[in-house]
Amino acid sequence: MLRLGRYAMPGAAAVVAHLSLPRRRPRCEAAGAPVAAAAEPLPVGAKVEGKVRKERPEYFDPIVPYPEWDGNWDGRLHLRQKSKDGPPAPTRHIILVRHGQYDESSKDDERRVLTGLGRDQAVATGHKLRAVLDASGSPDTEIRIRSSTLTRAKETAALMLPHLPDRTEHLGCDPNLNEGRPAQVIPGKAYSNAVVRADNDRIEEAFRSVFYRSGPREDGALHEYEIVVCHGNVIRYFALRALQLPPEAWLRLCTFNCSVTYLVVRPSGSVSLRALGDIGHLPPELTTFSMHHGLEW
């Protein structure tokens, strides 16, 4: 594992340092905007006409400005040339599954277990992925699954696993995949910058451990699958970051319980979204968003 700054990446010995790591800036300081000649701004917390000035929310400022595409977003552009000279590099299929419905009445994670309906959702999702994986590719295509460390995600992964192909490798649990506030939100009320920084540092590290282009493989594999069982906010953030779209839009995306979000990362570094929050495998009676049933909420 190679660490660049605060972020961990699956690594090669040589990794190009130009990464699409987000930088944070106050919203009022637009990128490239001219700085007006004005009086020195009052500090956060200063009283203005009897009111206390709130902190400015910090938003991401990508190294390559939107809407341009950073071709070296994962620092592995050099692997593209290697793939031309040697064995092929596989396409990465990344399948993000939100956990099933769970008991939200307790703040104790150990008691926040899946409901009976949530368990049925998890089993149905395992059957769905098994059918898709059996119909796709060769019987020896590599499949891996991991989850967050929160009870509802671990239970969902455990219920899915028996229904997945026997070759599926369980990578264990990663606390970086736990739920949180991955970015400020637009539109919406600003979160504490300190809270966002803490959650983002963790979730961004999880993003980089999952999303990257593969290098050439001596076994000649053309595809590999990564199944990640985690949480709604994390999945929303992953989808936007992978597509190099502003992550502050995460609350505009909706991921139902045991929905499937599916992205593909090509050896070239291109990324495409094939499904977002798909629940086509769940019958209406198993369709929930948290404790809300159906669509009318």
TrEMBL record:
Quote the SUPFAM superfamilies the UniProt record gives: Phosphoglycerate mutase-like (SSF53254)
Organism of this sequence: Aureococcus anophagefferens
Keywords from UniProt, A to Z, are: Hydrolase
User: Which InterPro entries does the protein's record reference?
Assistant: His_Pase_superF_clade-1, His_PPase_superfam, Mito_Ser/Thr_phosphatase
Family under the similarity heading: Belongs to the phosphoglycerate mutase family. BPG-dependent PGAM subfamily.
UniProt key word RNA-binding: no
Membrane-spanning intervals of the chain: none
**Stated name of the protein:** Serine/threonine-protein phosphatase PGAM5, mitochondrial
Q: Name one Pfam family in it.
A: His_Phos_1
